[in-house]
Specification:
- Helix content is 24%, strand content 34%.
- It is elongated.
């Protein structure tokens, strides 16, 4: 196993998780209550159990409480995984990276969507950090990761061996 220079584990901030869970629970509860109060007597008996499928919404949102992202920088690769969707780290060897840029998120840039966002040649992993590490690959794709530890990440990126083969753009 390669030596780990940097390690960070991130989760979606608990305030957002609680707000989203409460919103979904209130909406599904309201729909259930209104359906029960207005249509329960006229609803056919075989359709009544289907009303309980509204409980699937809050249960599905509970996955937000378990989602986490782990990022680590080793001596030969950048590695990440998003639990529970991936159990093992995905490795991006340094020879596939064109450049890495660490920038603070300010202004409108800071209002990005939470979670994993995929576009044509770009993936963003936003778990609420105020700094963004953008990795440009040599094949034209781009990966972005938020971080809560920008000073530590900048330190370890500065101390990577000089022969890694990509440029490092760090905040001044």
């Amino acid at each position: 196993m390669a030596q780990v220079y940097f390690y960070e584990k991130q989760t979606i901030p608990s305030t957002w998780r609680i707000i989203i869970f409460m919103f979904v629970t209130l909406m599904m509860g309201f729909v259930f209550l209104m359906t029960y109060l207005t249509e329960w007597d006229t609803m056919p008996a075989e359709e009544k159990p289907y009303l309980f499928t509204l409980l699937a919404g809050p249960v599905a949102v509970l996955i937000l409480f378990f989602i986490s992202m782990e990022v680590r920088i080793t001596q030969d690769a950048f590695e990440y995984k998003v639990y529970p969707f991936r159990k093992t780290f995905r490795k991006i060897p340094f020879n596939e990276i064109a450049d890495m840029e660490l920038t603070p998120l300010t202004g409108l840039k800071s209002f990005r969507r939470f979670g994993v966002n995929k576009r044509l040649n770009r993936q963003e992993f936003n778990f609420g950090g105020h700094h963004l590490l953008t990795i440009s690959l040599k094949n034209g794709k781009s990966l972005s990761y938020t971080t809560f530890k920008p000073k530590e990440m900048a330190y370890f990126l500065n101390n990577l061996p000089e022969d890694v083969g990509f440029t490092k753009k760090l905040p001044s």
